[in-house]
Amino acid sequence: MSDYGLKWTDGTDVSEAELKNLVISSSHPCLKFSDIGTGSITYTHDSTETDQLVATHNLGYEPLFRVLTQWFDINITGAKKETYRNAPFTDTLLDGAVYFIAEPYVNNTQLRYYVRSFTGSGTESITLKFLYIIYYDPDQDI
Amino acid sequence: MPEGLNIIERAKLSRRLQVNQKRIDKLEQLLSGQPVGTARFQDLAITLAKITNISADKITTGTLGVGEEILINDGTNDRILITRDDIRISKPGIDVKQTITETNKKDFILLSLTELHKLRYAGFVTGGTYTHNLNRIPIFHAWKVDSVSTPTKFSLSVVDPQPEASTTQILNLPNPAYLIIFNEGANP
After folding, report:
1. Which of A34, A85, A133 minimises the CB distance to B164?
2. Which DSSP letter does residue A138 get?
3. What is the 8-class DSSP label of residue B162?
4. Fold of A31-141
5. If you ran DSSP here, which 8-state letter would residue A120 be given?
6. B5 Cβ contact partners less than 8 Å away, ≥ 6 residues apart
7. CATH 2.60.40 domain residues, chain A
8. Which are the contacts of A61, defined by CB distance < 8 A and separation ≥ 6?
9. Inter-chain CB proximity A83 and B110 less than 8 Å
């Protein structure tokens, strides 16, 4: 049996379907989750750097990832919001000055979160919640 | 025996009667549910068949019901497994029926409630807000576009306000935007 595999179309006849018509084809790798989870990071507005472990993936390469982080809208309300933005991002003050930089990153074993804060509003300790997702790299693992 | 037959004719008739009796016995066995040896049918209609083992080059059906699983072999390894819980495909050389662990799950495509993104929405959005009502923070991607009908440029914003997700909406979208939301996410 040389022509084996699984094709699932969007309604197009499977014998006539092009790649764009396929919901899934076993001839093409999918973007699979390795890990999905949540966490939090605490930092202080005192011009220091925080570099925190988020998750250990041990994939042996630097995987594709996404982190959505709770955003602290200090410009407007001074209170933490229950909304999440894709990191990395730079938060700025009304005058355009950089307030903090949120920058998650990966190496070949870990997902880590780096935050660099800048002075501007005392030394309040801030805790931001986040969710993350790590994907297998089809080129590396398939 | 009918009178008037010679001995040869009587013998032929006797053998024919014996053969016919065997045929009748076979039919009675078939009708009584006893196993019948090899039989060939040119065209057979069965209302309800209970088959222990079937070999077929082609099966055409409206509905194919399977109790446990469908297994497809590539000539060397079992590669595709369809069960009541998921559809599992293994990479070449990998037995699809082996136990999936954190270490080897990269060798499989799993069509199940996990492992792959399910698309919640993909399309253009105007007005800066999209309501998803997932009751969780979903994974999403948003681009600023120059047109919803004939777009020529998709870009990511680096300045505030940036797109944000709540448990019910995507907010602060560029106007217009192209938005992709997946069902997967979490409540941090």
Report:
1. A85
2. H
3. P
4. Immunoglobulin-like (2.60.40)
5. S
6. B13
7. 31-141
8. A108, A137, A140
9. no
Q: Strands, DSSP E only, in B3-90?
A: 69-73, 78-83, 87-90
Q: Which residues in chain A touch residue B137, judged by CB atoms under 8 angstroms apart?
A: 68, 84, 131
Cα separation, B77 vs A6, whole angstroms: 15
Selecting from B74, B89, B139 the residue whose C-beta is nearest the C-beta of A1 gives B74
Chain A interface includes B129 (CB < 8 A): no
Output the CA angle B6-B10-B11, nearest 5 degrees.
120
Contact B80/A at CB under 8 A: yes
Length of chain B: 188
pLDDT of residue B114: 57
Q: Per residue of chain B (188 residues), give pLDDT as tens.
A: 667 888 888 899 999 999 999 999 888 887 787 777 787 888 888 888 888 888 888 888 888 888 889 998 988 999 999 887 778 888 889 999 998 887 787 788 777 655 678 888 999 999 999 999 999 999 999 999 999 999 999 998 777 778 999 999 999 999 999 999 998 899 98
Q: Is B74 on the interface with A (CB under 8 A)?
A: yes
Pairs of residues, one from chain A and one from chain B, whose beta carbons lie less than 8 Å apart: 94
Is the distance from CB of A130 to CB of B188 less than 8 angstroms?
yes
Contacts of A89 (CB under 8 A, 6+ apart): A69, A71, A101, A102, B158, B162
Q: Predicted ipTM? A: 0.78
Q: Is B86 on the interface with A (CB under 8 A)?
A: no
